[in-house]
Specification:
The complex is a heterodimer of chains A (104) and B (387). Chain A is built from three helices and seven strands. Chain A is α/β, with parallel strands linked by helices. Chain B is 20% helix and 31% strand. Chain B is elongated and about 75 Å long. The chains are: A alpha/beta (104), B alpha/beta (387).
């Protein structure tokens, strides 16, 4: 799974490099993000600008990780395309994650 | 009076709506666009109508049949072939389509109208006909003035002071445009025009026939009238047009049904819970169930036989027939049609591919509560409760 993790002072940036965040890759992403969290990251920025589509399993994986943070941290989604944003809004997950609006 | 409606196009710019329907059959609330056009033609005495069809022709032919239901007579010219059991569409272009009909049966034996089947119009055709006859032109184009800064979107028609067409400019830059009257794709022709249309080939009215007529010195005139023209050029136009119809702002298109609450109209056999919150303008299709705690915020159209579960919120949406929306889902500004969740700009998520059938699906399918999405579902419910 193609993913790049960059730690800096205030946040851990995770860049996810697949076109699809779906059932096929969700378990690996979940495991990798859980590791980032257990390694101590409180603020995670997940860069999804390469992602063309996300399915329920992909979104579910992100929710599991957020729940595992137990109210002690946050996950910000960066670069969500309109169809990725569409699924977040449909499930009201835009209220639960921070979605960074893309600057022009 | 005789008319031809052009309905052979593929409507590619309105995908995915046109994945399953040809553009003239796209419904505004419940009425296909072309039905409104036929009603309008009939009002002006055009009651013998030939329609050319190609892409998804069957839906047009089966809906309108011979036209008696609408008080007109209709015939169809299918442009294509049946090869190895499959329909292979072979559209001939607007003028090519006219020629095919003329070659087949000599239908056009007097002044006739030609117009597109996919834009709503309320132009005074009687007045256009009067002016056409008075001018002695072989062809009259109905043009419409538009704001100067919009001319770049259209085919501009340049005339002399007497209304005779001098030339055309296709989508000119604003500073280069020689007029602000645009071609609306509504024409009146004399049968002599067929002397200028070749048989058996693709031929287009705007880009081929008119230049040929003008080069031959034939008299082509333009009649400029202000009128309502609702063209569905893209998905967001469909959205905008639906909104206008719901708000009662389109002449000739009314929201059907009966008013069940202020601003809310519904078809037959609707079951709307007294504890459902609905603010208009909204149309609810026949047989639809809206449960307690569901919220619908207009402008919105809910199709027939839909099911909106409690806690779901539809704000400014258009839902096709047989749509089921799961509890707590939040649909804002989207269209649900042909198995897709579609944004106003046309971007679509396929319900099946994105595995969101448990949120939005065909109401005739068994309802599923996939255990693997249990956490997501519970988190949705929490978020809905706080909304």
């Amino acid at each position: 799974m193609d993913m790049k993790v960059t730690r800096n002072n205030d946040a851990t940036l995770v860049e996810f490099d697949h076109l699809r965040l779906d059932a096929a890759v969700a378990p690996q992403l979940k495991a990798a993000l859980l590791k980032v969290v257990t390694d101590g990251a409180k603020k995670v920025v997940l860069d999804l600008h390469k992602v063309k589509m996300i399915d329920s399993s992909g979104l579910g994986a992100l929710v599991s990780v957020l729940k595992a943070m137990n109210g002690q941290g946050s996950i910000t989604i960066r670069g969500a395309s309109s169809s990725v944003m569409g699924l977040f809004k449909l499930t009201r997950m835009d209220r639960v994650f921070t979605l960074e609006t893309v600057a022009a | 009076m005789k008319a031809m409606i052009l309905a052979a196009g593929k409507g590619t710019r309105v995908r995915p709506l046109t994945n399953v329907l040809p553009k003239p059959m796209i419904p505004l609330i419940r009425k296909p666009i072309m039905e409104a056009i036929i009603d309008h033609l009939r009002t002006h005495g055009f009651d013998e109508i030939f329609i050319n069809t190609s892409y998804l022709s069957r839906s047009i032919e089966e809906y309108f049949r011979d036209g008696d239901r609408l008080g007109v007579s209709i015939a169809y010219s299918y442009e294509g072939q049946l090869v190895d059991g499959e329909f292979v569409d072979k559209p001939l272009g607007s003028a090519g389509g006219m020629r095919r009909i003329q070659d087949r049966c000599g239908f056009f034996d007097r002044t006739f109208a030609v117009l597109c089947g996919d834009a709503l119009i309320d132009v005074d055709l009687t007045e256009v006909l009067r002016k056409h006859r008075a001018s002695g032109a072989i062809a009259t184009i109905v043009t419409k003035p538009v704001p100067r800064d919009e001319v770049h979107k259209y085919g501009v028609v340049v005339t002399d002071d007497g209304g005779r067409v001098l030339r055309f400019q296709e989508k000119p830059k604003v500073e280069e445009a020689a007029s602000n009257t645009i071609n609306t794709g509504i024409y009146l022709f004399e049968p002599e025009v067929f002397d200028h249309i070749p048989s058996g080939v693709e031929f287009d009215i705007g880009s081929q026939l008119f230049p040929k007529l003008i080069a031959a010195g034939a008299k082509v005139c333009a009649v400029s009238l202000p009128f309502e023209w609702v063209d569905i050029g893209c998905v967001s136009d469909f959205w905008e047009a639906t909104r206008l119809v719901l708000q009662g702002r389109v002449r000739g298109m009314r929201t059907p049904g009966t008013e069940i609450r202020p601003g809310v109209r519904a078809g037959l056999g609707v079951n709307v819970s007294p504890h459902a919150i609905i603010s208009g303008p909204v149309y609810v299709g026949s047989g639809t169930v809206i449960e307690a705690g569901a919220r619908i915020e207009g402008p919105a159209v809910i199709g027939a036989n839909c099911l909106i579960r409690g806690g779901a919120h539809v704000r400014e949406g258009i839902l096709g027939d047989y749509t089921r929306v799961a509890a707590d889902a939040m649909l804002e500004g989207h269209i649900v049609f042909a198995g897709r969740y579609i944004e106003p700009n046309g971007t679509a998520i396929e319900l099946h591919d994105a595995d969101i059938g448990w949120l939005i699906d065909d109401a005739r399918k068994p309802e599923v509560t996939p255990p693997q999405h249990g956490l997501l579902r519970d988190t949705m419910r929490e978020a809905a409760a706080q909304a």
